[in-house]
Each structure stands twice: as structure tokens, then as C-alpha cells.
Amino acid sequence: MKTPWIFVGMLTIVAAISPLGINLYLPSMPAMARALSVDYATIQVSLSVYLAAVAVGQLFVGPLSDRFGRRPILLGGLAMFVVGSVFCMLAPDAAWLNIGRVIQGLGGCAGITLSRAIVRDLYDRQEAASMIGYVTMGMAVGPMLAPTIGGLLEGVFGWRSAFAFLTLFGIATWIMVHRLLQETVPRLRQQAAGEAMAAPSLLSGYAWLLTSRAFWGYALTTSFTSGVFYAFIAGGAYVVIELMGRGPVEYGIYFGVVAFGYIVGNFISARFGKRLGGNRIIRMGLTLSPLSLLVMAILFGMGGNHPLVLFGPMFVVGMANGLVMPGTIAATVSVRPDAAGAASGLAGSLQIGLGALMAPFVGAIMGSTVWPLVWTMMVTALLAILAFALTRRGHGH
Known about the structure:
With 397 residues, this protein is an all-alpha fold.
């Protein structure tokens, strides 16, 4: 293995693949609807099918990597992501765009699933939480810059240029992984050293995880916490561009505020998680999120109509997510370390699956006000608190 920071940098880029597939084209969605002669809700389907493909793909990527290794499954997934990006770049209509998004999602899911499993292969739970915090802190830089880059690309070259960017990024990432990543699955590393160790069944890990209350508690906390963010990305562009009359570039710049909050939260989690305790950090984030959304509701109720009324509280929501996610992710993949891939895949599928449901729901309820978005985020944040309560009595089966 290379030096630690090169390793962290590689995992950061790998984990950023799937979020980039979401965030880079967000500012282009209204323009895509006009260019392809469809309404905004139809273009939002491209977000939903991508998230659905990521959710379904993780169910297979995780256990396959437990059996056959992280490296070959990750390289195959990155190759699929590149193929899907080319489909989207050349799509003549919304149907072909959605086909490309499905291929993109099925491939891109390998990055986020296996980056978590690789960390757990090499570190214990407490160290894994810190490492995941650093990886996701760095990973957030890409999504933070992506809407700005996407908005600029769309303004200068048109919406297809966003998918050209993703194609090139995917190719560069494949080359990097091929050169730098060695196999990390403990069983396969032992076999390489001449030690025999049985391969797990593709379904045995899932069978065990499905009965673990601790797994469900942490996995659902992760899902609902990220669900607040997915609700925001499904409706935020509509609020800023359509309701507030701002441009896609301005939206992209403001979006960076949310990602910066996520970076801050991840830094706090990585830096102080061991000292304060993982669950205490998680509780801090779960408390901050609904409180900041309450402030948002009050500001909109007082007649606020500036992007900062939306993005100011969302900075705190982003920070809260950064506090919650490293600890809950590390906990889910630590419930049964020999099935870390399956745990990462199942938890990730639940997480992204909720996002896939959130996108069309928010798209359908958005109208002439911001309130459907605000209340959807608030309810989802409260559900995360309820899910975390499952972990208090769920540290075993």
C-alpha cells in the first residue's frame, strides 16, 4: 500500500464519483428540460433513476466484493460509470438520458460502497470512523465545487459538457485505482500469503445483518440523515432558480455553502470523535439539523426571499450531516467485520434508496412556495432521531 495520505486521497476521489454524478448537472436541469422539450418533473426522473440504480447496485457490489475482492469489483464499476456518462453525453432525448443514468448509477455505486468497506478492512471501528471522516471531508470538496463547475460548463458549452466532464473524470479515476489499489479483503490477502480461509456465501452476510437491531438503527439513522440532503437537492434548484429568479451559476455558488458545512462537520468528527465518543458526536448532529430547519422555517415565515434564507440554515444542516455520517457508517460496517462489504452495500442501498424516493416526491409536491421542501426536510430529520433510538438496545443481535 502507498503512503497513507495518497491512500486517503485515492479513497476520497473514488468515493466522490457517485456524488459527482448527482451534483455536477443540478444547475443544468432547467436548461435540460427546455433542450429536450420536457417539463422539470420529467428531468427530475433522471435523478431518481440514478439514485435507484445506485441503491440496487450496492446490494450486489457489497457481497460480490466480500467474495471476489474490492479491487476487481471497483475497477468494473468505474468502467460502467464511464460508459453511462458517454450515453448521457450523447442522449438525444429523455429516455436515452435515463438509460445512461442507470448505467452510470450501477457503476458509480461501487465507489461509495467499496471505499467504506476498504477502510473497515484496514482499521477497527474507532479508527474507521476517523478515517471515514477524513475521506468524506475531502470527498465533499468535489460535490461542493461540482454545481459551480456544472453551472459554468452549462453556461459556456451547454448541458452535455457536464457529462463529458464526468466521462473524463471516470477514466482518470479508473487509471488511478488500477495503479494504486492493492486488494484489502483479509481473506484474499491471507490467500496471497498462502493461508487458506473460507469464502463467505454471497447471502450469508445479509441473512445475519437483517436480524441485527444495531445494524438497522445505525443504517436507518444514516439514511434519514442523508435524506434531508436528498430532499434539498431535489427541490433546492427549483426554489432558487424558479421561485427566487436566480441563475444556475448563482445557485451553484451558494450550493458550496452546504458542502462546506459538511466538510466542517466531518473535520470535527474525524478530529474529536475518539475524544468525545462516536455516539455523542452523532447526537450533536441529530440535534443541530432540526433546530436549523426550524430557523429556516421562521425566516421564510417572516417573508425572507433571499438564497441565504435557504442556504444559511442548510450550512448547519450540512455540518450536522458531517457529524452524524462518519460514526453511523463506521458502526454499520463494524457490526460484522467479515461482511463489511455486504453491510456497506445494504446500508448504502437504504441510504440512496430513500434519496431515490425523495426526489420524485419533492418534485411532485413543489409548487409556488418553499414550504413543501422545508417540511419534508424537517420530518426526515426527526425520523433520523427516532431511528438512532434503536441503537440504544441494539448493540448485539
